[in-house]
Design goal:
heterodimer; A: alpha+beta; four-stranded antiparallel sheet; B: Alpha-Beta Plaits; elongated
Amino acid sequence: MELNDRDHRLISALGDGLALVERPYLVLGQSLGMAEDEVIARIQAMKDCGIIRRFGIIVRHHELGFRANAMSVWDIPDHQVAEVGRILGDSPEVTLCYRRPRRLPDWPYNLFCMIHGRDRPAVEAAIAALVERYGLGSHAHAVLFSTRRFKQTGARYGRRAAAE
Amino acid sequence: MPVRDAIDRRLLNEFQQDFPLVARPYAALAETLGTDEADILGRLAHLSGRGAVSRVGAVFKPHTVGASTLAALAASPETLEEVATLVSSYPEVNHNYQREHRLNLWFVVTAPSRDGVQSVLADISVRTGLEVLDLPLVEHYHIDLGFDLKWS
């Protein structure tokens, strides 16, 4: 699917989320000069082709009692990283799983998993279970617990820089 | 806790994906949950006000809409607070966390283009005098179905 200018304007306007009103797609369309059914059809089309991976209520883990989160990183040989990534990405403990570049010598890790839990021991136990289950003990590994959240908002895709 | 009862719990856990694309989506949620539209709107306003709900919206596949990266820097303990405030002040920064590592500040930068992302990183580097690691996504392995809140 090729995104056109109307799609880009809709994506930008969606950054703030749907209004909490009876007809949110109508309200969203009014700010863009689009009819309600056009807004709905464009969102549906972006979902169908995978540009929108998920459309729904976006929760904040911390406020819902999942107060601990760690970024668990591994150095996996390049020829194995996709396989290990898919296994970890499918694991119930893992919220996000990405391959990213190493930046030697500062940063030797290429596989990143986010793990959330109610507290630090729960996250530590989840990571230990993953290491044990998939035999990851021989790979260099680090766990970076978050100690403070300075900012958490939705991504801004707009072409204008909107202040939060 | 911002969550008060079973309807709040179901509301948060069951509609993280496939939110109804119909003229009155909150009425559709209400029907599923055995309540009415006004009640759902009130619950979502409450949960948003308490921070439990970020928004009702879309998660986009990385790199199809705009560009983003994960960035990291190592600030001294004395300057971390100041550096973090500066980093958070960019509208392109949507997540910014202190983490336990020599690289102690981790943030996500999103912009319409890769050039836009890199200019933010360069600007932060110049203003802080610190090296900023740029770790763009190479491949993602997780199917995002939302976050199972495991209430039980």
